[in-house]
Design goal:
Layout lengths: L25 E11 L2 E10 L2 E6 L9 E4 L4 E4 L1 E6 L4 E2 L2 E2 L4 H10 L2 E8 L6 H11 L6 E7 L5 H13 L4 E5 L10 H14 L2 E5 L3 H14 L5 H6 L2 H18 L3 E3 L5 H12 L4 E3 L3 H5 L10 H5 L12 H11 L14 H4 L19 H10 L6 H15 L17 E11 L18 E11 L2 E5 L2 E2 L21 H12 L11
Parallel strand pairs: 1-4, 1-5, 6-9, 9-10, 10-11, 11-12, 12-13, 13-14
Antiparallel strand pairs: 1-2, 2-3, 5-15, 7-8, 15-16, 16-17, 17-18
Helix pairs in contact: 3-4, 4-7, 7-8
This protein binds N-(aminocarbonyl)-beta-alanine and zinc ion (ZN) (3 copies).
The site of N-(aminocarbonyl)-beta-alanine has 9 residues, from loops.
Family: Belongs to the metallo-dependent hydrolases superfamily. Hydantoinase/dihydropyrimidinase family.
EC number: 3.5.2.2
Subunit structure: Homotetramer.
Length: 510
């Protein structure tokens, strides 16, 4: 295939064709089972100029329209990955997938939008956003931003307001771990929660007790444990449970919704379950690695094999994975991310003598849709409509971009996948589109294959070939005050009125 005009601007890598998409601006997807979070039906989907124009049976079109046959297949909203780290500077290196290779991988796996975390520069949100605007400048799919808060002062507080009111960011992540770098204390978390509440922005937490993790690391050093297994041993589930419980209680005290990222353990999940049962607005996001892998890999005698499974919070002992799957199917957890944060073998080898120096993170942006279909739908744990809710629709609702995203519906963006339930997939670093030389799902075979991905009305993945267009991806602004904020004011008013009658005391001394 001829390289297209957009392909010579520094994107010289990758084993896939990079060319200008030749597909027409008008598309008809014929005869598939159209799946939304609430409903599925056999229908045609007609797309014009990147927007879904009609969804109904037997749509008739002229011969200037590209027709895709989807009979016997599922036509679903493209996946939205709520949690990625593309081109992130972290632990002395930078994640191997930038916005181009990471997004190409995403599209090949049926994900058409991701939300990445802007990391402030020396605490400055403005400088952080500028850096990420550069990194994402040539995006080939739609994306949005969360932003981390790593210090607190009046400037940061004002910048948060600018991010929400002018820059399309409606969520902020607070790291309760990574002592000495990204970690913040409870005092800052409280200030952040209050500010988030006033702006209608969603507070997100990385929930591990960073001070205790530091103690755990010292303990490993004293025991002479320097290998990747030390990573898991130094930060056990109890530290994730503690931080999850603490963040939930502080959010409850402030009365603002909370989103717990990468829920990896039963301990954290149980805290979320308890909170939701008591009426608190808490969202739990498991990630694919935590749902389907277990920590046994960390004891692998080959360092690189073990090191590729190092992420935080750690992948847990067998049993946590199945419990998280059950929680997802029961509605205790609401959506699935990846925490795609890929490092290659050379980068992982930074920690060859000390597990604390192994860059934390695993891949997943390309694998999420397939692994989740295989694990949850093929096994009978969830329905196809649930699959759409967990991979796309609920994420769009939480970040307040539904139904522009997350739905197959007239007026929605034409981010669509065609999944063949009778076809199979196999995962390997040899064939994946990430720049990493390893894959934590190496050798995984399963049923259900994304055969076509449509991004912004363009066919970008078909016949196992990518045709991505750098620069075609749009930054999606996400407005504040999602549905999670409904009722917050009423609850506050009720609380205040309960305080109204001051206690009358007589000043008598006996
Ligand atoms: O190990 C991880 N999760 N790396 C990415 C940073 C984070 O904490 O999400
Ligand atoms: Zn419907
Ligand atoms: Zn995190
Ligand atoms: Zn992350």
């Amino acid at each position: 295939s001829e390289p297209g005009q957009f392909c010579n601007s520094g994107f010289g890598y990758g084993d896939f064709a990079c060319e200008v998409s030749s597909s027409s601006a008008k598309l008809l997807i014929k005869g598939g089972t159209v799946v939304n979070a609430h409903h599925m039906e056999i229908a045609d989907v007609y797309v014009e100029d990147g927007i879904i124009v009609a969804v109904s049976p037997n749509i008739k079109v002229g011969d200037d329209v590209t027709v895709l046959d989807a009979s016997g297949k599922f036509v679903m909203p493209g996946g939205i990955d709520p949690h990625t780290h593309l081109a992130m500077e972290f632990m002395g290196t930078e994640t191997i997938d930038d916005f181009f290779s990471g997004q190409a991988a995403a599209l090949a796996g049926g994900t058409t939008m991701h939300i990445d975390f802007v990391i402030p520069v020396n605490g400055s949100l403005t400088a952080g956003l500028e850096a990420y605007e550069k990194k994402s400048g040539k995006s080939c799919m739609d994306y949005g931003f969360h932003m981390a808060i790593t210090k607190w002062d009046e400037i940061v507080s004002q910048e948060m307001e600018i991010m929400v009111k002018e820059k399309g960011i409606n969520s902020f992540k607070f790291f309760l771990a990574y002592k000495g770098s990204l970690m913040i204390n409870d005092e800052l978390l409280l200030q952040g929660l209050k500010k988030c509440k006033s702006l209608g922005a969603l507070a997100m937490v990385h929930a591990e007790n960073g001070d205790a993790v530091y103690e755990g690391q010292k303990r490993m050093k004293e025991l002479g444990i320097t290998g990747p297994e030390g990573h898991s041993l130094s930060r056990p589930p109890v530290l994730e449970g503690e931080a999850t419980a603490r963040a939930i209680r502080l959010a409850a005290f402030v009365n603002t919704p909370l989103y717990v990222v990468h829920v990896m353990s039963i301990d954290a999940m149980e805290e979320i379950s308890k909170a939701r049962k008591s009426g608190l607005k808490v969202i739990g996001e498991p990630v694919v690695s935590g749902l389907v892998l277990n920590e046994s890999w960390l004891w692998d005698p080959d360092f690189i094999t073990a090191a590729k499974y190092v992420m935080s919070p750690p992948i847990r002992a067998a049993g946590h994975d199945r419990a998280l799957q059950a929680a997802l199917s029961m509605g205790i957890l609401q959506l699935v991310g990846t925490d795609h944060c890929a490092f290659n073998s050379t980068q992982k080898a930074l920690g060859i003598d000390d597990f604390q120096k192994i860059p934390n993170g695993v891949n997943g942006i390309e694998e999420r849709m397939h692994v989740l279909w295989d694990t949850m739908v093929e096994s009978g744990q969830i329905s196809v409509t649930d699959y759409v809710r967990l991979t796309s629709a609920e994420c769009a609702r939480i970040f307040n971009i539904y139904p522009r995203k997350g739905a197959i519906r007239a007026g929605s963006d034409a981010d669509i996948i065609i999944l063949n339930p009778n076809s199979s997939f196999e995962i390997s670093a040899k064939s994946h589109h990430s720049k990493s030389d390893t894959n934590v799902y190496e050798g995984w075979r399963g049923k259900g294959k994304v055969e076509v991905t449509i991004s912004g009305g363009r066919v970008v993945w078909q016949n196992d070939e990518l045709k991505v267009v750098p620069g075609s991806g749009k930054y999606i602004e996400m407005p504040p005050f999602s549905y999670l904020f409904n009722g917050i004011e009423k609850a506050d008013a009720k609380y205040l009125s309960s305080l109204k009658a001051p206690v009358k005391r007589l000043r008598t001394i006996t």
